[in-house]
Write a structure and sequence with these properties.
Helix content: 10-25%
Structural class: alpha+beta
Distance between the termini: 37 Å
Number of helices: 7
Order of helices and strands: EEEHEEEEHHEEHEHEHEEEEEEEH
Radius of gyration: 21 Å
Largest sheet: 5 strands, antiparallel
Shape: globular
Length: 357
Amino acid sequence: MSHNSFGHLFKFTTWGESHGPAIGCVVDGCPPGIELSENDIQPFMDARKPGTSRFVTQRKEPDQVKILSGVFEGKTTGTPISLLIENKDQRSKDYSEIKNRYRPGHADYTYDAKYGIRDYRGGGRSSARETANRVAAGAIARKILGNDVVIRGAVTQIGTSIIDGDHWDWDQVSQNPFWCPDAKAAKAWENYLDEVRKSGNSIGAIVEVQAEGVPAGWGAPVYGKLDSEIANGLMSINAAKGVEIGAGFASAGYTGVENADEMRIKDGTPTFLSNNSGGILGGISNGDTIVARMAIKPTSSILTEVRSINSKGEEIDVRTKGRHDPCVGIRAVPVAEAMLACVLADHKLRHRGQTGN
């Protein structure tokens, strides 16, 4: 299997399977002299880990990250940083019934079609368990970006229930299990997801991530555009089926006047009066807040029987036992933040390499 690496100057390679002894990643391209320890990474791992509420999978993983290389006396050395995360709570027997069965909507069939073999235990390499590695790499990317760049995310929609943008409050995101910035919507989602979970079904979501403090100038046209690489990073996340930057698809219905992010000078600095561009023009950051959203499909592993086939080509009905997220989009927030951080750190280094700034 190829294509397990992401990035250019800041690059990480992930390895491991959902039910193997461990997962991990190797981060390459991190500049030397940056203070780094497991304590800098662990809070982000804790935010993504399973078992944190009844609305996510009940698999209990401590997700303790270990730094194996690339750090000496508390600082990065400029050499590859190897990170290890042990798997502690695998229950492979839960997947014995689907050993030769394909879950509709999952990668079971396509992995078998491509490789002629698949690890059916939790989906193996196709499992969202792999995203823990990305979060670890993203924590290092944030160290490269520094405190001036603030990255944060939220769930703005679950199923057909959408938050009220007028009630957006970032402080609310940490006050509920849904990463929801609207307290009223979060309350309604409790009953909604309880019903979905108890019915043996699942539901999709939309996740929004933002980055404030990114200076104008990051991005490499024509084929290294900042927005295209953000989209690439977000679309590489398990269950992602769509990405938009700024106004995104809504901009197709705007006039040129409505879509124009008009400009003025404020305190001697160019200022945009709106942000339909999502902070990126011509593939280059314009200094405004970078805004991206991704659509996450419903979890494919569900207790409700659905029609499928098995590896012999026989028509069957299949359901999946085990511990699964009724809405995988909830735990996708820290993963989306991590991928945005990795793209931005990469572009910061590339920008510095080209311009010296």
